[in-house]
Each structure stands twice: as structure tokens, then as C-alpha cells.
Fold each of these.
Amino acid sequence: MTAEQDERAFRALTRQITRVRGLACDAYKARCLRRRIAVRMRARGVHSFEEYTRLLDADAHEYDLLVDALTINLTKFFRNMETWRALEPRLATLWQARGGQVRAWSAGCASGEEPYTVAVALAETARRCRQASRLPQARVEATDIDRGSLERTRAATFPDASFTEMPAELARRYFTAAAPRRPLPVLQGLVHVAPHDLTSEPPPHPPYDLIVCRNVVIYFDRPMQERLFTQFADALTPGGILLLGNGDAVRPGARPARPRGAAGAHLPAARDVTEPAGPRERVVRVGEWAAERGEAVLVTLGLGSCVAIMLHDPQVCAGAMAHVLLPSRSLARDTTNPAKFPETAVPLLVARLTQLGADPRRLVAKLAGGASMFAQLMTPGTVQMGERNVLAVRDALRHAGIPIKGAAVGGGAGRSVRFYVADGRTEIRSVGSDAVLI
Ligand SMILES: C[S@@+](CC[C@H](N)C(=O)[O-])C[C@H]1O[C@@H](n2cnc3c(N)ncnc32)[C@H](O)[C@@H]1O
């Protein structure tokens, strides 16, 4: 079959999926659709789109399996915890400003873990503000295109696997103990579930103070993403927050407009990771590291209790960054990634910089992060994870004989960092305030 015939058969298949199941395939990335459809084709032992189209005609249940595969509804409570940590102080500001009447929308909510994460975050905010009685005034709308996901969100019974990223204390406070776990009465009535197709319908009940749309737009093509970002911006209240997922990049040119009338719009800053804004920018995500020479900029966002370590050799204009997560390997189940822990991340950065021509004796370090997140959950007097991370990084640097030239650590706010490898300049931006240089 020629590439042209293959493309024609693929288009005929996607048109049929749209006609029969209403899924607007043309809004999704073709590469992504092809990959997902191929998974189903392999599962059914067919080798061409034409054959698969015929199979769908004969077996309606295959449509359910295909739509499931296309809409991918993987999720967890507090997925990418750092994002939710960074959101915490912003949510408190929002709560105070709205007197508790916060309206949130979880768009593409899958089986409900995300809207219930928002509900827990709001309940925690209310508790910290000593306004727990106002919690029923808050509202979380949960929408998805997938009927099965909506049924699961309505049922609100969650398997243990959904809780692996949620702090145990929060799980105990807001969910029943026995599996399958259910939300406790304090959360009941907060989450409202409805069907909604992001590709063809406007936001259901704007305005919103918080829109959470994570790991959904990544599947859409660029024009669809741009349309959605504009819709989100229009649907947000002034000062409202848009929370996206790790891969849901707002690219240059697709940057959302400010919400109408917004004085201090919080759109991009609430995202956990942005896409590189230029060819020489590299994003270092949680538990990752990178090393560069020359004009590169190493960027990391969503630093809560984590610490960004920046090492620099001014003579050869080389720099490296790691976004470490935990003070020690003894606290982790998976210890295979050395960039997660200061004790292994520092030698790793030194080794890579040496390969790039740096001299370990010339290296200087800067640190950022180590904030005290979810401080209220800790017993007074105990050392916070953020502080422990900072102490462990200082230890690892001392051990490697690398002096610390600047640090922006501690406090209660999340941070983002831009590290200019050419001259070692490091811009630190705390959530809700202006950038500082260290
Ligand atoms: C990977 S899950 C993300 C779940 C959750 N937001 C998270 O990050 O944990 C993607 C969800 O987007 C939903 N989805 C896909 N296309 C959609 C559309 N056109 N409109 C609304 N939801 C959609 C899927 O059904 C699925 O539940």
C-alpha cells in the first residue's frame, strides 16, 4: 500500500469514528491517533486501517475499546505533587479574595481523582484559613468526554493505586480507610459531574477561579490547543489560575491572553513545567538534570520543597542543573534515578561538567527551592522536607568541595529558576512576586 493510500484509509477511519462516536478526531494530533489506533489493531490482529474499519462495522464493542484507547484516562490523586504544592499559597490568596466562593473546573477529569484533588486542596485551604464552614460554598465542576470516566467520577470509589502520590495524612483526613476508598462527608456536594467535549463546546459554566486541564491538550493539534487556551483565558476570573500538565505546553505564540480585566493574571506561573521558549532553553523537570555550555538557559519550574542545584564554571561557560526531590535515597522506593537525590546528583553534575571541559576546582554552586509546603500538616518543631532537602544539598556540596555562591531557599512559596549557563546569572521567581537574581 502506498503512503497516499494509507493516509486515505486512515482519514476514512477517523471520519467514521467521528460520525459513529462523535469524537472529533481532526482536533487530535494525527501521530497520537495513529499510535493509539495501532495499539487496538495489534490487539485485534489486523494490519491495515481498512481491515480495522471493517472490524469496527462488525463489532460495536470495539468502538468502546478504541475510544477508551484514544481518550487515555490515566490519572491519580495529586498527580505531580510539586504542582499542587506550588498551587497551595496561590489557592489561599484566591480563597481569601473570594471569601470561600471559589469556582473550579477540572476539564478532562478522567475517573475523578483530579476534581477530588481540587476538592481536597480547597478543603485544606479552608481549614488553614479557619473557614472550614465556608467549604460548601466552593464548587468543583468535573467534565470529560468519556462516559465511562464520568460514571466512575460519579461513583467516587477509588482504588489504592490512585493514592500513591497523595500524602497519607490527607488520604486519612478526606477518604474512608477501607478499599475501595470513598470521599468522607466533608467533601460531599463539592464535585459536580457533567459530560463535556473540549473540542466542540465552550466552557460549561464560566467564570472560573481555577481551571485544571492536565494531560489533555497534549493530545490536541496546535490550532485546537490555541483555541482552547483562548477559551480558558476568557473563562477565568481576574487573578484566576490555569493549571496545565507537564507536557501541556503553552508555546510561544500560543500563550493565553490575559483574562479580561485581569490586573495580575496568574496564567503561566501556575503551570508545573513550561515548554522551552527558545531554541537554547532546556527545561529540567522534577528529578531530572541537564548540563550545557555556551548560550543555553536551564529552566526549572514548580520548585516547592525540591531544590534546584546549579553548578557553574565561569571560565569555560559551562553549567549544570539538577532538580532534586528527596534528601536521601533511604526515603525513596525507587532509587534508580541519581538526579533525584543530592548525594548522587552532585557527583553526576560534576562528572558531566568535567566532560564538557569544566574544572571541578573552579565550580561554584547556587541553590533555590526547599520551601515549606503543606506546613500545617507537620507537627510543630519537626524539620520540613524542604529544609531537609536544603541541608542534604549543602552536605553534598561540602563533600564535593564546591562553594555555595548564592541561595534562595526556604519560605512558603514555590519558585521557578532560569539559569544562564554563559555567565552563571540565575533568576529566581517566587510564586506571586517579582524575579530576584542570585
Ligand atoms: C490522561 S487523562 C487526564 C486525567 C487528568 N486530567 C489527569 O491529569 O490526571 C485525559 C482525559 O481527557 C479526556 N478527554 C480526551 N479528549 C477529550 C475531549 N475532547 N473533551 C473532554 N475530555 C477529553 C479523556 O477522556 C481522559 O479522561
Note: The chain has three domains: 3-70, 81-244, 280-437.
Amino acid sequence: MYYLFKFKKLLYIVCLSFISCEVIDDTNEYLLIQNCMQEWVKRTNGAILLETAPYGKEDVKIIKMGSNIFQGATIKGKYIIISNVTERIVYHEIGHVIGLMHEHQRPDSFLYITINYRKLIKRNLLAIYSFLPLKPSDFKYNYKNYIYDYYSIMHYNETESGNIIDGHGHALSGDEPSEIDIQKVRDMYAAKPLRITFALYGFN
Ligand SMILES: [Zn+2]
């Protein structure tokens, strides 16, 4: 199942390189994405520079899927695939592109939250969502330098995880980057600011 999902993702990417995508501009979704990019830039105070690029010249393709296949997914930092363009999802996916990892995948997350793996496996969701703990070397930053951030934009919340995560009484994730998310990005790129360009495509 897991590999099937990976294969499916890969297949989309192959298809996308053959089928011409429609360029999206001047829509509410385009404006929402631009606004999220600008907010990341503003809040991280010059640590990153995110801009829209001429189509075909971008570092990251944002692809709006017609059908509800991906609520949001980032693939190799080069593609963001979104079905529902919401502020929370756009902030989260940009978070992946600029180097943030899921907070609930910290190796020490078990100290703070409980993931119901039994439910996860029973519902066949292990392949679709990223729940399993990562290695310290998977993080671009030293996660131990930051307190566990229940409110991170990179934390799955109870609803989207199908009540698989128990935050031990803490609300999980917000709708925008948390103070700690911002701090991590500032720390990561303090020495050398990160520049990334994006273009938005539609694909039905
Ligand atoms: Zn994610």
C-alpha cells in the first residue's frame, strides 16, 4: 500500500510533465497563495525570499488538482499538489519547501502526544499520511533546540488525522505559522537567506 501510494505520486509527476497545465493567475486562490508567501517572508524577517516566477522558470511548481486527491502534498520540495487551497494547507506545504518537518514526526514526539497506530493501520492511513518518527538527521535543524511545538503549522491536527493524534489536552496546530516555526526558519537561514520562486498551475 505504501509503495503503491509512492508510485501513484510518481505517476502524477510523470503525467504532469506530458500534459500541458493551465496557468492560474488572477484568481482568489492565486492571491491566497501569494499572501501566504508574503506572510512567511515578512514574519521571518529576511531569512527567506519567496517570489512568483515566470512560468517554466520556477523552482517549485504549485499544482492545483481538480479532483480531491491530495488535500496537500509536497514532493521532493519541487512540487506542491493541492486540491483544497486553504491558508493552513498553503502555509504548511510552503513550510515543507523551506525545510520544516512535521512536528509530530520528531523522534521524541511520543513524550508529548500519543499516536493511535492501531487505528492508523486499521484505516489504512499509514501510507497516506506521514506519522512515523523521523531520524534526527532527517531534520535540517536540531529539533532538540526547540520546545515541542503543539501549535506548529507543521503539526497534524486532530481533525485531519481522523482523531489519530491525542495531544494530551493541547490544541494541535494553528492556521498559520507559530512563533517557533518562524524562529526555526530564521535560525536555519540566518547566515544565508533562502530564495525560492513559485508558479501556480491548474490541472483538471
Ligand atoms: Zn505535511
Note: The first strand starts at residue 22 and ends at 23.
